């Protein structure tokens, strides 16, 4: 009976996956192709679909079937027990939230995206305030329902993106990261070394940037018969799984770092998606382990590979062919320019060292927002004060300040910490890869990135959610998640460039 019940759980869950895939493609279309006039219709459509998904996830039949399967879980295989646990967690989360609230939040998120896009274009935070106030209120209500009387609100939201992570553990890791980062930034700022950024900052044709970035993406192993690369206001990676991966980026003719490293970053996400097991896609085990693990893949390719000297040894000639005026710069100069440490306004374009300060800033702000310690109208002032305190710079306007990121408009509160967690996972995974693959850096210097891609797919991607994030990092690296590997990596790089 228990096995039959579990098979019924899988059948019902597969339909929910299909519906969620439809929402994913509509979300991609909203960001990439949808005309502005379709915003309200799309919001209603998305809200209806999310309502249907919520109804399926909380249906008495599914709840009853999950309970039946749980009673006989001893007869299930370890993978079935893991799949059942994942479904149970999803059902419990969904049943905490009334259907009306789920639909209302979906509607607010779709409307919020359009309000944010207009507000960002005009650098007018006031135009975004009503939409964001609605989103924050609804997300807070959802967190209260999930957390119960004694639970932490931010824990309930963090669990959506990094299951098993707690605010207490997160604080420990972020505090350690801040302690590692701040002294290094101070030393760099006080250093006499000046890095020439002209290999990336100047005037560069968008078509040449796009063609070169796509070449790198393909060499990393992205299959474009199973993926796309488009333009959007904010770079992201979406799609429906291994066979349909949707990546986006944006390009600036005056600074090619955002475009190039943005494509490499999203290609790291894309490789994770294309490396997943297609047979698991419609099962409870399908999907990424956590957003921290997902971000580790993009950050690993962006920072540990593409900002490394072996990468530029392999790609120097093709880079110069794309931008002939840069021929006067050698490999070392381009590598240094790719790794300049300089406090900057925009998170997605921040250097590898100061990036974590951007994440710490956002994490602390959104926690105070959800707890009610600050209001939405306080955000610009709090943001600017935090930027000045942590990075020593103040945004000129809200577009390069509080409006730069899409996450709050999406209702994705609790997401930001996963970027820094991704940096930590990435450093540990890269150390493990170097230990496992003899001469890995020499291979990369010769243009071979597929060996690393295969290692990542075998050790991480293909498992989908078979293991927890905690188990996968210990399984791959032999250690629990920590800051030590990242500290070794970033100190070595900063010392090599700044002495």
Quick recap of the structure?
With 499 residues, the protein is mostly helical. 64% of the residues lie in helices and 3% in strands.
Write the layout of secondary structure elements.
Layout: H1 2-32, H2 39-57, H3 60-71, H4 78-95, H5 99-122, H6 125-147, H7 153-161, H8 167-190, H9 206-220, E1 227-231, E2 237-241, E3 244-249, H10 257-275, H11 291-305, H12 309-322, H13 331-338, H14 355-371, H15 379-391, H16 417-436, H17 440-445, H18 450-459, H19 469-477, H20 484-498
Parallel strand pairs: 1-3
Antiparallel strand pairs: 2-3
Helix pairs in contact: 1-2, 1-3, 2-5, 3-4, 5-6, 6-7, 8-20, 9-10, 9-12, 10-11, 11-16, 12-13, 14-15, 14-16, 16-20
Q: What is the CATH topology descriptor of the largest domain?
A: Neurolysin, domain 3
Q: Decide which structural class fits the backbone.
A: mainly alpha
Mean residue pLDDT: 96
> What's the count of strands?
3
Secondary-structure element string: HHHHHHHHHEEEHHHHHHHHHHH
Unreliable stretches (pLDDT < 50, length at least 5) are: none
Describe the largest sheet.
3 strands, mixed
Strand order in the largest sheet: 1-3-2
Rg, Å, rounded: 23 Å
Total helices: the number is: 20
Q: What would you say the CATH architecture of the largest domain is? A: Orthogonal Bundle
The CATH class of the largest domain, by name, is Mainly Alpha
Termini Cα gap: 67 Å
């Amino acid at each position: 009976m228990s096995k039959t019940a579990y098979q019924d759980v899988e059948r019902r869950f597969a339909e929910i996956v299909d519906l969620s895939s439809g929402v994913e493609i509509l979300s991609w279309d909203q960001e990439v192709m949808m005309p502005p006039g379709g915003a309200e219709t799309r919001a209603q459509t998305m809200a209806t679909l999310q309502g249907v998904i919520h109804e399926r996830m909380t249906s008495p039949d599914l709840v009853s079937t999950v309970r039946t399967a749980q009673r006989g879980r001893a007869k299930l295989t370890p993978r079935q027990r893991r799949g059942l646990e994942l479904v149970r967690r999803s059902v419990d989360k969904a049943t905490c939230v009334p259907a009306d609230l789920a639909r209302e939040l979906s509607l607010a998120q779709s409307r919020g995206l359009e309000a944010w896009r207009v507000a960002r274009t005009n650098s007018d935070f006031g135009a975004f305030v009503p939409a964001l106030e609605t989103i924050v209120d609804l997300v807070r209500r959802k967190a209260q329902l999930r957390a119960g009387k004694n639970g932490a609100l931010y824990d309930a939201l963090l669990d959506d993106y990094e299951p098993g992570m707690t605010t207490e553990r997160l604080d420990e890791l972020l505090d350690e990261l801040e302690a590692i980062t701040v002294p290094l930034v101070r030393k760099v700022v006080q250093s006499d070394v000046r890095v020439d950024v002209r290999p990336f900052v100047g005037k560069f044709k968008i078509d040449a940037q796009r063609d070169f970035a796509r070449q790198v993406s393909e060499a990393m192993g992205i299959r474009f018969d199973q993926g796309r690369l488009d333009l959007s206001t904010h770079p992201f990676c979406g799609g429906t799984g291994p066979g349909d991966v949707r990546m986006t980026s944006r390009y600036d003719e005056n600074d090619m770092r955002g475009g190039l490293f943005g494509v490499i970053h999203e290609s790291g996400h894309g490789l994770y998606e294309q490396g997943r097991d297609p047979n698991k896609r419609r099962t409870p085990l399908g999907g990424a382990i956590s957003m921290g693990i997902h971000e580790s893949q993009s950050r690993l390719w962006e920072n540990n590979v593409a900002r490394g000297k072996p990468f530029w040894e392999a790609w120097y000639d093709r880079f110069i062919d794309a931008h002939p005026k840069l021929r006067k710069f050698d490999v070392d100069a381009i590598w240094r320019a790719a790794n300049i440490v300089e406090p900057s306004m925009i998170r997605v374009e921040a250097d590898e060292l100061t990036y974590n300060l951007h994440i710490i800033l956002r994490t602390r702000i959104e926690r105070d927002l959800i707890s009610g310690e600050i209001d939405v109208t306080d955000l610009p002032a709090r943001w600017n004060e935090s930027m000045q305190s942590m990075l020593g710079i103040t945004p000129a306007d809200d577009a390069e300040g509080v409006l730069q990121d899409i996450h709050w408009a999406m209702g994705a509160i609790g997401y930001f910490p996963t970027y820094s967690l991704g940096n930590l996972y990435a450093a540990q995974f890269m150390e493990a890869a170097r230990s496992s693959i003899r001469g890995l850096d020499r291979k990369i210097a010769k243009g071979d990135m597929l060996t690393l891609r295969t290692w990542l797919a075998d050790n991480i991607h293909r498992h989908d959610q078979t293991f927890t994030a905690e188990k996968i990092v210990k399984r791959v690296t032999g250690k629990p998640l920590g800051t030590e590997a990242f500290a070794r990596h970033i100190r070595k790089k900063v010392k090599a460039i700044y002495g």
